[in-house]
User: Which sequence fits this backbone?
């Protein structure tokens, strides 16, 4: 007998193609907040994830109260002229200037898993204290998914807060070699089966290339919408075009029509979280 799929557990058919469109980097700037709100309320986005240590995170929490928002576990601070610190004082969390490291590699070279656990737990608790109905976890710049001991913390937090997670593709988790999918499944932690990783390709092109060939089940595609202007151009001149492109893409009627023409059904992480809690997983 075939195993019941996650889509079937959510009440859909085995061959249905379900899509989560997540907006990463909520809270990183005011321009990101308003572009993401547009994408969720006027466009095709169904979820977002909040960078709790960032200066604009509190505004984002107010704007997104009641919407599907996860925590974008943040252990890096990548912009040369715009930096942030962690919520905790762990020595391995911060660079010589007192900020979170600028790159994933730098973070992984210095980060102690115990410090990461404290920091990430505080980030989740802060989001909850701001009245956000936290729906899932994912990892900014992939830090918490990039090392086996950090991934264990990622799963510990997902289990403690009864939340689903973003998961790398089967090919990437096989390459990593620490059985990420199997470890999550053993704990009853749910995750979309498939992921499309656009960055740094133009997201609209990725949609038109990937949507017609989406596999049955649940796929996550994520983007980084930010409205153009002086704020964005000041803190991220290198990737401004990608971020403004994403803001336009997610409210483009042609992209919405593409999903409809291909029979794609959009869901959010909230449905997966609620299933996980009802089914008793990750308790």
Assistant:
């Amino acid at each position: 007998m075939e195993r019941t799929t996650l889509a079937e557990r959510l009440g859909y058919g085995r061959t249905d193609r379900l899509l989560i469109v997540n907006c990463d980097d909520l809270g990183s700037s005011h321009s990101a907040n308003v572009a993401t709100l547009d994408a969720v309320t006027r466009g095709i986005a169904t979820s977002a994830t909040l960078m709790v240590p960032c200066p604009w995170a509190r505004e984002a929490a107010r704007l997104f109260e009641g919407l599907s928002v996860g925590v974008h576990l943040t252990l890096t601070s990548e912009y040369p002229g715009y930096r942030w610190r962690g919520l905790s004082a762990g020595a391995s969390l911060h660079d010589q200037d007192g900020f979170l490291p600028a790159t994933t590699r730098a973070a992984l070279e210095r980060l102690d898993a115990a410090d990461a656990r404290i920091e990430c737990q505080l980030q989740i608790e802060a989001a909850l204290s701001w009245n956000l109905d936290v729906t899932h976890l994912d990892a900014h710049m992939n830090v918490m998914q990039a090392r086996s001991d950090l991934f264990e913390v990622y799963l510990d937090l997902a289990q403690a807060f009864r939340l689903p997670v973003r998961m790398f593709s089967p090919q990437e988790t096989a390459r990593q070699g620490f059985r990420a999918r199997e470890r999550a499944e053993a704990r009853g932690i749910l995750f979309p089966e498939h992921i499309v990783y656009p960055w740094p390709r133009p997201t609209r092109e990725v949609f038109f290339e990937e949507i017609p060939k989406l596999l049955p089940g649940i796929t996550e595609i994520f983007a980084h919408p930010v409205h153009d202007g002086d704020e964005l151009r000041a803190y991220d001149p290198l990737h401004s075009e990608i971020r403004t492109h994403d803001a336009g893409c997610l409210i483009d009627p042609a992209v919405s029509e593409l999903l409809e023409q291909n029979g794609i059904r959009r869901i959010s992480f909230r449905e997966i979280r609620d299933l996980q809690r009802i089914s008793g997983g990750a308790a």
